[in-house]
Amino acid sequence: MLGNGRRKVFIPVWIIASFLLLYSPPGKCQNAAPPSASPGAAPTDSVPDIRALADSVRALQAQVQRLNSQVSELRAAEEREHAEARALRSELNRATAKLLTTPGQAHDAYAAVTSPANAPPDNTAAAAVAAAGPATSEQGTSLERRVTKLEDNQELTDAKVLDQSQTKVESGSKYRVRFSGMVLLNAFATRGSVDNLDFPEVATPANVPDTSGAFSGSLRQSQLGVEVFGPDVAGAHTSANVRFDFAGGQVDAPNGAVMGVVRLRTGTIRMDWADTSIVAGQDSLFFAPLMPTSLASLAIPALSYSGNLWLWTPQIRIEHRVALSEDSSLLLQAGILDSLTGDYPNLQMRVPSEGEQSGQPAYAARVAWSHHAFGRDVTVGVGGYYGRQNWGFGRGVDGWAGTTDVTVPLGKYFDFTGEFYRGRAVGGFGGGIGQSVLFSGPVTDPTTTIRGLDSMGGWIQVKYKPKANFEVNFALGQDNPFAGELRNFPATMYYYGPLTSRNLTPFVNFIYHARSNVLFSAEYRRLQTYYLDRNLETANQIGLSVGYIF
After folding, report:
1. What domains, with CATH codes, occur in the chain?
2. Virtual CA dihedral for 139, 140, 144, 147, nearest 10 degrees?
3. What's the DSSP call for residue 436?
4. What's the confidence (pLDDT) of residue 524?
């Protein structure tokens, strides 16, 4: 009975369990699987999200490709800038070596006013690095140096682009030609008699000529220059230059005083190696290279006949530079010069001067030591000159001079320059106030004694430059022929009449660069000339100058 009852109960349970086993899996699968969409049903929300993501990925890939292309272009541009910077640096080094070894141009009054070398160095980046001190990490310092270098390269590149954008002077050859110069207007108010109204050198006795109370103007001191950069020859970089002004005389015509005649000043051909240069042409005296800074007197350098030796003479010289250390160097110069003695020429033909009549050139040499200090160079130079003169009838005169030149920066804003000489028969250079030799009688008389005049002099200048575009210059020059020798030869006569025993000239000026090529200047000059056993003659001149550099 019990077994039959269990069977009756087991059969329904088995049936129910079988039913559950058969129908439970489809229910689980139905709950796990996403609902099927019919062909006409709308798309679900996940599909547009996936498409938008794919579009974003494609856009990012395109942007990355464009960025890679731009980075490649920037790298190529940077490489080109580095190459241009290296080329510019090489050209700058050659130009710097040329300036340092061409005293006549580097220290010409015009160059002294317009040369960028006179501008104070821009030490902003260096000061920023120094201000960081030891606390700055190596990485920061390296990054700042790199930034500074990139800025410098960019400035050089910009300058190169600006230079290339200018219209160039066309040359008959394939080599580069540079035309430059300055239009200079000078206006003067003169009190007292002077030898030359435009650029006076001595005060003369009253009415010889009568210039007192005059007001005058002139463009005769304007300058023109041409420079050519040629090929490399035997490893040397070649170049040439020539410079003119309009102070060669006056035109024989109404108002011809302001119609200046073109005059050759200097012209040289150069071969520059790394440490050696050969210069041939007409140039200033390399053994007396410095010139005071003035816009009022460019046709003849300021303080001429007041201790400043100068002359433009044909010459050949060799220069050699020796590096003593990172901050010190030595410059050795030697050459031969046309032995000019200051004679007035025969306007009908070319006749030799007394120096040329000697049959030999003049000889000169100079040694200069330079040391970098205060961000600039301290330079001390010593030079010497010898030239033989032939005055006929077996009368020879030995002309000679010893010179010293000094350039010293005095702190951040001041510079001191000076030049001194002691010599004999150097009137052709402006020494002895233009008086070179003494005569006991007529020069055509064979019995006349001729002797070289001993003299000494020099000049100093202090430059105050608080800004790169403004400077004030104080200068004083003096020349002293030996008065005892002058008294022993009273028959001697020169252009100015009475013999002069002393010439003292102080001046002060300011020069303002309104722009890089526009200059304004005002100058006061006083001339004090002592004539042998006569009264002192004085003159004062105030000058205003406007210059445009091109």
Report:
1. 165-549 (2.40.160.10)
2. 60
3. -
4. 98
